[in-house]
Amino acid sequence: MQTPIHLLNGVAALFKVGLIRVQGDDAAKFLHGQLTNDFVALGPGEARLAGFCTSKGRLQASFIGFKLSPTDILLVCDLALLPATLKRLSMFVMRAKAKLSDASADFVLFGLAGQALQNAIELRAISAFPTWARAYFDGVSLVSLHPADGVARALWVAPSGSPAPAGAVLSQALWDWSEVRSGIATITPSVAEAFVPQMLNYESVGGVNFKKGCYPGQEVVARSQFRGTLKRRAYLAHCASPMKVGEEVFSSDDQGQPVGTVAQTAAAPASGFDAIISMQISAYESGGVRLGAVDGPPLMLSPPPYPLLADI
Question: How many separate domains does the chain show?
Fold first, then answer.
């Protein structure tokens, strides 16, 4: 299924995400020891996809993080999951010189796609803007995201009261759809603690650093990668019927047990619904996967829109 490119062209006000702010001399070091990615080496022109895992390696939250300064870091995350995540992360601060707060009211967030993003890049003469790059200008952080079917996308994070970026209005619904089509799922309350990072392909899209050292669940995540035990991956799916986050999917080859879980979903503008589904590799390869039950609505599956890091 191809994205009608003209639909993903504009600026979307984002109301489903919030911001955790981490400030202090140990801000980067603290996050480095808690999340799946490297925040000590994070440069001002970069952003990071990262997960916050339980001791069992299950993702309880996911972030896109970047530095406002060496001692001031912003983490973009699901707004509904933010209070519990902030409370949980704060438990581990202990003696670290780091202060965590909910900064959602201090900033405005927009999603830029297509020509609106291209115009913003050209206006600021940004010469290169690869995925997970960060540009900074006039108090604004522009963070490059994975594209949706080839359509470039980015986050625009600015202090509250700042004017919206220029561009046609893009609905929240279309932005949500672009998030699904990017193939990178955000952890929300319905799937918190449901997946290890590789079940959502995080290691294949820059969300896991296997060389950075310890963090909660690190041994489980590393063992999954290096012992050839990866049995689930995230794939794209389309269905004529609505899909709910957390809903299970089934295969005719295994009628007794679900073979996967809907991780993220959105209405498709043409018809039906699209989703990111974490499921057994064997079920994806066999086909015949259905929503909710063995005789439920059929799913049309497709590979993720990026290459997968080999299971070694």
Answer: 2
